[in-house]
């Protein structure tokens, strides 16, 4: 149960987290952030070419950019990147309200504000809170809608209808948010499929109305429903790697819910077999660890060997299996575990990336806190101070390093009037929108020096160093 003082502390955590993320709001975009902010400019003059450019760089739906464009239509600004990052940062309000309501509804004894600190500081959640991408915003909309629908007694009133429509918006942004509609129906299922269909038929239609309108508009105008043909092969991954990807995703989930899985387990035959089983499947994963799409630890791996990293990961990985096997035998637990596993299994047939787990992580934590009674907060505090804070600082510094490097190179090219004569090379994911009207390529940006180097750019901080070359062709 969330007490009055606990709720006030929750709001302190939410507001402070939001303000901290605003400090990074004006940094130069990286990793295709520009596609969303530039796509939002479609609503200024309704130039269809802007959407075509968007789909030439993005497999995501256009919905996030459209929402940003609507905001910009009402409150116009030149730098629409600010709105994309504001929406991402606003996710903490939606997630915070959702967890406060769920803690109250299920009478959870664990301090909600302390849980929010842990959840927000999860590097995956923290990082995408200051990135102008739809990942965290879509997940927060879906989870917020889910929490409100779950805690409202009457399923047929305007407030409930609004939240189903809101869930539909999150599905428009990221279709994988559809898992929340499945979860809502599954939690209410009581051995009679006909009653469930009868009860939810209208609500399913209501939820899917906006996504269906979006997909049909895209099909009519651009001749595809969900993914541009350019990215079809990139999204569908090699099915032979499915088992490795599944284990990889489960490893990231295990790390996220640790240390809540760190409990006393009776060392009997069943738990011993579970340890052996988890060890075997983890060894299978080791043969492909770090080679599966974006399912890795990025530049963090520079600070320790992969072998040591894998040894450290095995500990929470095995604890997760012990936790799920020994979890209290309740219907809601089984249903939540089924949804989590089904979602991850589905992801395992597509190109893997850590960010896809953002949608399911709130459900993973929902399962965890439903089974929390008394838990030593020192373990949680240790993970926050020893792992989360240092990792988030390193990721933040890397974000600034990449952002600032690109900004300085672009500034030089524009001042020297070379921007329209230069192939962006490694700058493409961050700055493609600045290289417009290329008519005659005379230069290229590269990590490797060419025969005729016109300019060398050196960037470094206390743990990173990168050199770019402007080569004359």
Quick tags:
about 475 residues, mainly alpha, four-stranded mixed β-sheet
Can you lay out the helices and strands and say which pair or pack?
Blueprint: H1 4-22, H2 33-39, H3 42-45, H4 48-57, H5 63-74, H6 81-105, H7 112-120, H8 123-128, H9 135-151, H10 158-173, H11 179-188, H12 193-222, H13 229-235, H14 242-257, H15 269-286, H16 306-325, H17 331-347, H18 361-370, H19 377-415, E1 422-423, H20 428-431, E2 443-446, E3 453-460, E4 465-472
Parallel strand pairs: 1-2
Antiparallel strand pairs: 2-4, 3-4
Helix pairs in contact: 1-6, 1-7, 2-4, 2-5, 2-6, 6-9, 9-10, 10-12, 11-17, 14-15, 14-16, 15-16, 17-18
Structure write-up:
With 473 residues, this protein is mainly alpha-helical. It has 20 helices and four strands. It has helices at residues 4-22, 33-39, 42-45, 48-57, 63-74, 81-105, 112-120, 123-128, 135-151, 158-173, 179-188, 193-222, 229-235, 242-257, 269-286, 306-325, 331-347, 361-370, 377-415, 428-431; strands at 422-423, 443-446, 453-460, 465-472. The relative contact order is 0.10.
């Amino acid at each position: 149960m969330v007490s009055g003082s606990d709720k006030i502390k929750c709001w302190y955590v939410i507001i402070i987290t939001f303000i901290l993320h605003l400090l990074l709001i004006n940094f130069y975009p990286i990793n295709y952030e520009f596609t969303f902010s530039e796509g939002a400019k479609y609503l200024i003059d309704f130039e269809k070419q802007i959407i075509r450019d968007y789909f030439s760089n993005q497999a995501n739906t256009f919905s996030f950019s459209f929402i940003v464009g609507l905001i910009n239509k009402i409150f116009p600004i030149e730098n629409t990147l600010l709105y994309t990052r504001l929406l991402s940062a606003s996710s903490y309000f939606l997630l915070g309200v959702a967890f406060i309501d769920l803690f109250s509804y299920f009478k959870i004894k664990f301090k909600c504000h302390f849980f929010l600190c842990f959840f927000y500081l999860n590097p995956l959640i923290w990082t995408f809170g200051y990135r102008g991408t739809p990942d965290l915003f879509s997940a927060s909309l879906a989870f917020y809608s889910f929490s409100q629908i779950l805690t409202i007694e009457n399923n047929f009133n305007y407030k409930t209808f609004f939240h189903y429509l809101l869930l539909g918006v999150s599905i428009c942004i990221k279709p994988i948010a559809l898992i929340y509609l499945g979860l809502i129906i599954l939690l209410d299922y009581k051995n009679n499929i006909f009653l469930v269909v009868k009860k939810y038929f209208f609500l399913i239609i209501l939820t899917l109305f906006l996504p269906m309108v979006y997909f049909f508009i895209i099909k009519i105008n651009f001749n595809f429903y969900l993914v541009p043909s350019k990215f079809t092969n990139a999204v569908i991954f090699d099915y032979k790697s499915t088992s490795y990807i599944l284990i990889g995703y489960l490893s990231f989930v295990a790390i996220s819910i640790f240390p809540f899985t760190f409990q006393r387990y009776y060392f009997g035959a069943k738990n011993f077999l579970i340890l052996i089983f988890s060890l075997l499947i983890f060894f299978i994963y080791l043969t492909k660890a770090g080679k599966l799409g974006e399912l890795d630890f990025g530049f963090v791996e520079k600070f320790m060997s992969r072998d040591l990293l894998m040894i450290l990961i095995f500990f929470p990985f095995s604890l997760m299996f012990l936790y799920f096997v020994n979890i209290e035998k309740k219907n809601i637990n089984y249903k939540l575990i089924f949804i989590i596993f089904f979602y991850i299994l589905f992801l395992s047939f597509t190109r893997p990336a850590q960010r896809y787990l953002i949608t399911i992580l709130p459900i993973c934590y929902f399962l965890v806190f439903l089974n929390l009674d008394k838990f030593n907060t020192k373990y949680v505090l240790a993970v926050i101070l020893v792992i989360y804070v240092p990792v988030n600082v390193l990721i933040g510094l890397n974000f600034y390093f990449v952002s600032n490097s690109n900004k300085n190179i672009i500034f030089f090219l524009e001042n020297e009037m070379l921007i329209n004569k230069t192939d962006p090379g490694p700058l493409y994911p961050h700055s493609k929108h600045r290289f417009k009207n290329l008519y005659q390529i005379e230069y290229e940006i590269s990590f490797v020096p060419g025969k005729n180097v016109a300019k060398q750019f050196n960037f470094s901080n206390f743990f990173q160093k990168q050199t770019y070359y402007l080569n004359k062709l």
